[in-house]
Amino acid sequence: MKLLLDTHIWLWSLQEPRRLGKRVQHELRDPTNEFWLSPISTWEALTLNSKGRIRLRGNLEEWVALSTAPFHEAPLTHEIALAARQLPLSHQDPANRFLAATALVLGLTLVTADAGLLGLGEIATLGNR
Fold this sequence. Notes:
The chain is α/β, with parallel strands linked by helices.
């Protein structure tokens, strides 16, 4: 599977792996899967850190380099921006819109615990249960 990690799933995998469900843990350990991360998640993590909602330790440039190294970097394209605007989501969170659109356009499975992103029909999702 080609898995795009939602920001919280990525951060939990780094800092609080016990919060990950058994299926998600299994898939994250499976070497046959491809793991993807959007730069939107990096931006979101850095924003949460600057607001004091999470704590990223050490030099931020080094943290970003180390924590993103195992992932394919999902591109942020004009097609993804258009899809993000057109998605029929009930909330307007731009990060969630971009992540869902990235999964849709690139044919990735979005790994998330966000109920608002699960079961979106044409977007493949893997719930953290």
